[in-house]
Structures are given as C-alpha cells and as structure tokens.
Design brief:
Layout (H helix, E strand, L loop, with lengths): L20 E9 H14 L3 E2 L14 H24 L15 H59 L30 E8 L3 H11 L4 E7 L4 E2 L6 E2 L1 E8 L2 H13 L3 E3 L5 H57 L3 E2 L5 E9 L3 H14 L7 E5 L16 H10 L10 H15 L3 H16 L1 H5 L5 H8 L1 H18 L15 E3 L12 E3 L18 H34 L3 H32 L5 H10 L14 H20 L1 H12 L32 H25 L2 H25 L4 H39 L16 H6 L3
Helix pairs in contact: 1-6, 1-7, 2-3, 2-6, 3-6, 4-5, 9-13, 9-20, 9-21, 10-13, 14-15, 14-19, 14-20, 15-17, 15-18, 15-19, 18-19, 20-21
Length: about 800
C-alpha cells in the first residue's frame, strides 16, 4: 500500500494495491458551499455520493441555476457554430477565469447573441434582396433579348414587303403587333408574365401550362448558363428564364397558380426597350449598393465573432465549471436548519489534509463566519478503487480495467502486465526489423505528444496515441526477441559472431546440416544464423518455440497463483492460503511444472527422450518402466509421488473450504470488513445495504456449488490454459513464415528478373505487404492474443475484478469534455 513518504502532498505511487480510501462527511455553510465545491473540483480528490437520489432533477435545490447555465451553454454552442461557419478559430486560453463573474458572463452572452442574431437577420434580408435582384437582372437581359430580336425581325419584314403574306407563318413575328386591317374594337389584347423556373421542372411546367389553358398560351424559355442562388431557399440552382403570353384574366390566374406551385419566381417586365435599358441600369446600381452593404455587414459580423473568439474558451470553461458545481451541489442534502449542506463522498486517505485546507480556504475567501466540518464515517460499503497512474502506466492500467476494475486493495495485475504484456507480444512478433519500424512510428508519437495531445485525432489514431508507451515497450521487446530468433525481415545476420558451423565441402550447402561441422564456439546470443534456410530449420524451430511457450505459460500461471497467496495474506484469509493456494500450486506443478523441468533437463543433457510419451503414460501406466525415455534416476518414483499429490490436491481444493466457512459463520454473529476507527463517534456509523462484506445469510449449498465450479474450472483450466500458451509458438511461426514468403516470393523474385521496372514494382508490393500485413494486421493479432493470455490464463488465477473505479469530481475532466 502507498504510505505517506514524508514531505510533499502525495505519497509515492504504488500500483500493487489501490489507495486506501475513506468515506468522509462534509458539513458546509450555505454561503461558502459554492466556493467549497469549486476548490474541491480543483483538487479532484473527492467522489461525492448522491444524497438526493429519490428527487427528480426539477425538485432539487439548484435546478434554476442549472437551467441558467444550460441556457448560457446553448448560447456558447450557437457562437461556436457561427464561428465554425465563418472560419474563425477560438483563441487559446492562457490565463485563468479567477476574475470573471458568472453574472457578467450571462449579460455579455445575452448582448452578443442579440447583436449577432440581428446582424444575421439583416444579412439574410440583404442577401435575399440581392439574390432577387440578380434574378431580376437575368430576366431583364434574357427576356429583353427575346423582345428586341422579335422587334428587329418584324421591322425588317415590314420593310421588305408591304404584303402581309410573307410573315403569316413566321414564328418570329411579334405577337403584339396590331394589324392595320383589323378593326380596333375587335382586337384581342395579349398579356405576358416573365420569371425564372428551376430547369429540372421546366418541361413539366410548360406541359402543365399548355394543358391548363387548352393551348391558349405561347411560352418561350431561355437557359441561364451560370447557377443562380434561389432567394427563398438560399441554395444554388440551375434555372430557365421564361416568358408566357396569354389572353384573358382567367388564363392569367391559372398561370399564376401554376407558377406558385412550381416555385417559379415572377418579375415585372416592360416591353418598351427604353424602359428595359433604364430598369437594367437601376437594378445594376442597386446590386452594387447591396453588395457593398453586405460586405460591410459581413465585416462587422467577423469582427464581432473575432471578439467572441478571444473570450470563447474562457466563457465556455467558466459555464461548464459552474454547471458542474451546481450539479454537484444538487447531490448534497440540506440540513434541517436549511443553513448548511451535508455532503458525503469517498476520498483517498492521503488527501485528508488537502481537503481540509481547501475547506478552510473556501471559508476564508467567502467571508463565512462558520467554517466547514470534515469528519470520517465508518461504513461496510465497498470503497472505490483508485490507482494513481502516469502517462506511462495509464495505458496498461486501462488494459487491465477493460477486463474488470480491481476490487478494493486487491493485487493489481497491471504491475506485472507492464513487462509481461509487451514481452508475450514480442514472443509472437519476434523480428528486429519489424520492431525497429514499430519503434520509429511510436517515437514520432512520443516526440510530438504535446502537439498531438491538443489535437482531435481519428478513432484508430487516438487509440494508438493513447497506448504509445505500450507500443514502444512492445517494439523494444520485439527487437530483443528478434535478435534471439535472428530475424531481420526474415533475413539472418551473424551480428554477434560468425556461425559456429561451416560446410565440410561445397555440396553441403544443399539445405541440410549433415554436411556441416562445428569449427567455432557456440553462437553467443540467439539462434545461429546457419539454421535459416536449412531443411531442418522448421522442425528445430517448432520444437524450440513450442517448449519455450510451455515454459513461459507455466511460469506466468505460477505467478498468478503466487499473487493469490499475497491477496489471501493481505485480506487475512488463511483458508484461501491452505485450501486454495497450496493445492493449486501442488496440482499445477505436479503436472506442468514437472513437464517444464523435463524440458530443461532434455535441453541440458541432449537426451532423445519423447516427452509426449512420458506425460501420457505417467497417467495411463504410471508403474511401467520408462526405458529410453528416462531422463534422470528414480524418475518413475518421482512421477508416482507427483501424480499422487496432484490427485490429493483436488479434494483439498473442493471439500474443506465450504465447511470451514460455515463454521466461521456460525462462530460469529456479524462480520465486518474493516476495522472501526477509534476517533469516530458511534453516532456516525453508516449502514448501507449494498456492497457489504458481512454475511447476513450463509447458504452452504451455494458456497459448495461455487467451490465445486471453481475447482473444476481450475483443474480443467490447468490443461487448457497450458495448451493456450502454444499460441505463442503458432503466431511466432506464422509471423516468421509470412515474412519469409514476402521476402523470397516478392523481393527476391523481382530482383531475379534483372528489370528495373519489375524491381520497383516488387519493392512497392513488398513494402505494402510488410506494412499492411506484418506491421498492422500481425501487430493487431499478436496484441489480441497477448491480451487474451493476460485476461484469461493469468488473471483468472487471482483477480476478481468486481470493483468500481474512483470517479472524483474534477475540473480537469470537465475541461476536457466536449459539450
């Protein structure tokens, strides 16, 4: 456990056991409550309990203040959205918000919102007018072209001939031309409408007009080349200018309804050419004025947004903090006098002094005449688990917590996982070339961690950045195991000395060790490079890695059982020591510990004994002679003793513990998990229904069945878990063979063609295959398998993982939250 190491506010970090916790009660005067919670949020070492859980959010004391903060948060989100659209970045906050008042912030936010809303409304009106005038200008230009061309055509025809026959069938003749021979009283006056219609609706629009008026219209359309911004929707659209000629008011009303249904914008138009030119001039002038006004408005809006951006982070943090403070205050209960607030919460034992200092400082700063009261409560409730981690250990602790949060002061697997996790990963990923690639990628993340920490990364990149130190350890161990395997992108290198073997003659290079003779000392570190490429490479490496996997697996499982001993000793459970730890150690090591010893003896002696045969017939025929499979004297006797111990250990695990627990329960009326605090008044004793360790009821059948399941799980798991560690051998072999295939079948094959183009393509394929398959997919695969070995094979020997995390009220967490 962590103990106060004299000097400094916090004790030395200790990951083996979680921090000792205490349930504290704070009685705070109303006038200093806000400042007290604020200072405790800065401290970040108190997890408040909700004492008003039976009340709805609207019935709580500070519901109005939370609503007020929520309204301010809405305004801040509105500003953020407006700045994002305008491309204005909020200025980074350099100072603190000590001098800023929430009331001033509320007033300022209200004024700025009103001003910004007014500017946006004016800008929208001006922009709509501008878009309408742009459409009007297009109508004047396009429809004017139609009228002027028709007028020119009619004038030319009138000059050519006096006879009307030449122009009877011409469509280009003016429709409004009055025939001199027709009596004025019998003339039909034609009207016309102009406007713009969306291009995708233009054909349907024309067809509907024709049918609605029974063909008594004449319509002309002209395509507008550039896109037009629609005044109503504000979106860009492709449109056509249309002119519709009609006769009569009924036809006109029908045309107006159809235009409205099709979203066609209509604009007034004069057939007088002089008036058309005058209107175009006027519209162009108004467009210039509107453009200037809009630009000035946008400039003013950008200046306003820039002003907001300068204080945005400060205001945002202030509002989030205030909202968090009031949410916390709502978890406090009112005293009967309604002059004090009572808070309860968990805090580490080492934080008592800092909490009391924060309470005193809040009382002084708020000019309270009465100080806050700090006292420790007794409880049987299970405290939260709190490990103080740093940026190096936090990722490993997250890996452990993903399986389950440690029970209060239970032994933490993270202490060993820091080393064993990257090591087991490296056993499966052993290649020092690939390890260097991983290390370079990780060093980039570590060197630029300050800059990257302040940026928003993608999901995958965020995970890689969070585990950068774990990946660094994985890459370093991969380099180490790669040197042992002597593989650099599957290529062996005699780094530490020349190979101990040489060819007897030129023919021995034909992939066999028969023609090799030992001419030097044994290769000093790792695998002799001469093994690579030989016919016996695969059988040799298979045997080596399989046996190595069993040794590593048995070692780690033994470590897990040893950790269960330290747990039992810490919680003073002699039953678990005598009837769980000792039988489990005997059972595992009588079988697989013995197998590990046989492997080491075989390596040391060079024996040809078949270990499969030894282990199988140890169970099937324990009294038979071993013959050539005997590795040491009296081996048969040793095997009989070990087999007997393994068989005896099973009932020792199963039977005694339930009966002893039953006897202990009968001997005591009520069990307590924690020793009483001498300085605590009896009136402050807190009884809680959840999480207690005392056994109000003892169900012997339930305990017995649980112990039976636990025993069967361990016995079967000893076999299955040992076999599970063979994944170390399988994945290591797969990684090595894949790397060899990419090197030989891609790179060397491309090199053999003596063609630069094929070589370049081969190198590109090799790089992509190495990165995509070996550095990404294989890394993920080895990571997941190492994760499984820790979660299942290692942690199930001692780790319960049924606790819950310490979640203190902290402004550091509040500041990092995204609204």
């Amino acid at each position: 456990m962590a103990e106060n190491g004299g000097g400094g506010c916090c004790p030395p970090m200790d990951l083996m056991r979680s921090e000792p916790m205490q349930l504290v009660q704070l009685i705070v005067p109303m006038e200093s409550a806000h400042l007290t919670v604020s200072y405790l949020g800065d401290l970040g070492l108190v997890q408040f309990k909700d004492l008003n859980s039976e009340k709805s959010p609207f019935q709580r004391t500070y519901a109005a203040q939370i609503k007020r903060c929520g309204e301010m948060a809405r305004k801040i989100r509105f500003f953020k959205d407006q700045m994002s659209k305008a491309g204005v970045l909020p200025k980074e906050m350099l100072g603190k918000e000590n001098d800023i008042d929430l009331d001033d912030v509320e007033v300022k936010l209200g004024e700025l919102e009103a001003e910004l809303v007014e500017i946006n409304a004016n800008n929208d009106k001006l922009q709509r007018s501008y878009n309408e005038l742009m459409e009007y200008k297009l109508v004047l230009e396009k429809a004017g072209e139609f009228f002027s061309s028709a007028h020119r055509s009619a004038t030319a025809q009138q000059r050519e001939t006096e006879s009307p026959r030449a122009s009877e069938d011409l469509l280009e003749s003016p429709l409004l031309q009055e025939e001199k021979s027709i009596d004025a009283s019998k003339q039909v006056k034609l009207g016309f409408l102009t406007g713009l219609v969306p291009r995708e609706k233009s054909m349907v629009f024309e067809r509907i007009l024709f049918r609605a008026t029974r063909g008594n219209v004449y319509i002309r359309q002209t395509v507008v080349e550039e896109t037009v911004i629609d005044p109503n929707s504000g979106e860009k659209a492709e449109k056509n200018v249309f002119v519709v000629f009609y006769s009569g008011e009924r036809a006109k009303s029908k045309i107006l309804k159809i235009c409205e249904a099709f979203g066609a914008n209509r604009y007034p138009f004069s057939e007088d050419l002089r008036k058309q030119a005058q209107m175009i001039t006027e519209v162009s002038g108004r467009l210039t004025e509107l453009k200037t006004t809009i630009d000035a408005g946008l400039g003013h809006r950008n200046i306003l947004l820039q002003t907001i951006g300068d204080k945005f982070e400060l205001w945002s943090l202030k509002v989030r903090k205030e909202k968090a403070i009031y949410h916390t205050l709502n978890m406090l209960s009112l005293d009967v006098t309604k002059k004090c607030l009572v808070a309860e919460g968990w805090s580490p034992v080492f934080a008592s002094k800092e909490i009391q200092e924060a309470l005193e400082r809040a009382a002084v700063d708020s000019n309270s005449q009465v100080g806050s009261i700090f006292q420790i409560l007794r409880t049987k409730e299970l405290p939260p688990t709190y490990f103080r981690t740093n940026k190096f250990t936090s990722a490993i602790q997250e890996i452990v917590d993903a399986y389950g949060v440690a029970k209060y002061q239970e032994a933490n697997p993270g202490v060993f996982t820091i080393v064993t996790f990257p090591f087991l990963f490296a056993v499966m990923f052993g290649d020092w070339g690939h390890g260097i690639c991983l290390l370079l990628a990780t060093m980039y993340l570590i060197v630029r961690e300050k800059k990257l920490a302040s940026q928003k990364l993608g999901d995958i990149m965020e995970m890689a950045f969070g585990g950068r130190y774990v990946i660094m350890m994985m890459s370093l161990f991969s380099i180490y195991t790669g040197l042992i395997y002597n593989e650099f992108f599957s290529i062996p290198y005699p780094l530490f000395a020349p190979s101990a073997y040489d060819c007897r003659d030129a023919s021995c290079s034909e992939a066999t060790t028969i023609g090799l003779i030992k001419v030097r000392d044994t290769y000093p570190f790792g695998l002799d490079p001469v093994w690579h490429g030989t016919r016996s490479e695969l059988p040799f490496l298979n045997s080596l890695k399989m046996k190595m996997s069993i040794l590593l697996g048995v070692s780690q499982m033994n470590l897990g059982i040893i950790m269960s001993y330290f747990n039992a000793r810490f919680f003073k459970s002699s039953v678990n020591i005598w009837f769980q730890f000792i039988p489990q150690m005997i059972f595992l090591n009588s079988l697989f510990g013995y197998l590990s010893v046989l492997i080491i003896i075989k390596w040391c002696t060079g024996s040809q004994a078949d270990l499969y045969h030894v282990m199988i017939y140890m169970f099937l025929s324990p009294t038979d002679e071993l013959g050539e499979n005997q590795l040491f004297p009296h081996q048969k006797t040793v095997q009989l003793v070990l087999l007997f111990l393994a068989l005896v250990s099973v009932p020792c695990m199963l039977l005694p513990k339930p009966f002893i627990l039953k006897k202990q329960h009968e001997a005591r009326h009520q069990g307590q998990s924690y020793a009483p605090l001498e300085e605590t008044d009896e009136s402050l004793h807190v009884e809680t229904s959840g999480g207690g360790h005392g056994h109000e009821e003892f169900e012997f059948s339930e305990i017995f069945v649980h112990q039976l399941i636990h025993t069967i799980e361990f016995v079967l798991g000893a076999v299955s878990n040992t076999a599970s560690y063979l994944r170390l051998w399988a994945l290591s072999l797969a990684h090595s063979e894949l790397s060899s295939v990419f090197y030989e079948k891609v790179l060397l094959l491309a090199w053999g063609y003596n063609n630069w183009l094929i070589l370049i393509v081969g190198i590109i394929v090799f790089v992509f295959a190495t990165v995509g398959v070996l550095l990404v997919m294989e890394t993920l695969s080895a990571f997941l398998h190492a994760l499984r070995l820790h979660w299942v094979e290692f942690q199930n020997k001692f780790y319960e993982g049924d606790g819950y995390k310490f979640a203190p009220f902290s402004f550091i967490l509040t500041a990092s939250e995204d609204e």
